[in-house]
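User: I'm writing a short report section on ligand binding and want a predicted complex to refer to. Could you take this sequence and PMV and write out the structure as tokens? A short remark afterwards would be nice.
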Amino acid sequence: MNKQQIVEKILDNNNFDRYRVNKHGQAFAPSNIALVKYWGKSNTVLNIPNTDSLSISLGNLGSDTQISIYGGNEDLVIVNDLVIKNDTEFYLRVKNYLDLFRNYKTNGEQLFNYNYKLEIKINIPIASGLASSACGFAALVQAFDNLFNLNLSKQDLSILARLGSGSASRSIWDGFVYWQKGNDIYGMDSFSYPINTQLADLCIGLLILSTQQKAIGSTKAMLDTCATSVLYNKAWKFQVEQDLQLMNKAILSQDLELLGETAENNALAMHATMLAAKPAIMYSNKDSIEAIYKVWELRKQGLKIYFTQDAGPNLKLIFHSRDLTKIQNIFTNIQVIQAF
Ligand code: PMV
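Assistant: Sure. The structure tokens for the complex follow:
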């Protein structure tokens, strides 16, 4: 099955009522940070991961999307009050995604074959290294669901969001989220679900070190790592298995220190698989390395602070809320997120 057929399969199973179309559909989806990372796909087109992963959603940081049927001759996409040009990568990704629904046919009829107006508000700090595609696709598919009263299950919404961007499958939920890779070759069981335990004390600080566009996108970096890194191919899945166990234990026992240690070790291991690729892929810059040493130094002094890092140079700091003021005094430009 290709993406189109997967969308068809999911939509065929729902009870769409053509007479109940709303004026517009609206949805908010949070951004998320993986504590046990997803790195590497078994299917690059369908975004099916090689391993399970576990994330934390970022509360009210994310994307708010409103969608309506539009009379113009192509989709109109507005992000934070700016009209997005129709030849940009952003516009084309959204348009291609909506095409999957436009092309859907049932009994020879194309029920969703309209142009759409999208008004998107993203409140993630610009260039923070937080994937806007994750919350973007998760909000878009839920807004679409609301527009047509499709009432798709969260499971189906997670699969559909995944077709837009892998990590978007996790942004369907709040709090801690588990994305199971599944076993189906078409990814019909590759979706996310929430872990219904909170950790109220958890603070996350975004440490923005570079606003430059990253040199290599995550899809290409994953492909190159899988193709050339012995560390990836011989060790990564064992690292993930171990870390998922530790992370589940940390969440259940409300152990922020175990959570932080595990997230940091997992992120370093992910970056190690990339450093072992040929040629090496390195997302850290000098400032990232300096900040990592700073975190380690603070930890030596007794402060319980940890970091994680995704496909970019910026770090996300993990610490107890009791240490917030102290940490804000050390890292003066962090943006703090209370996930619960
Ligand atoms: O879903 P993508 O293509 O944005 O890839 C996400 C990859 C990481 O952020 C590095 C890890 C993760 O699990 O989110």
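A remark for your report: The longest helix spans residues 230-252. The radius of gyration is 20 Å.
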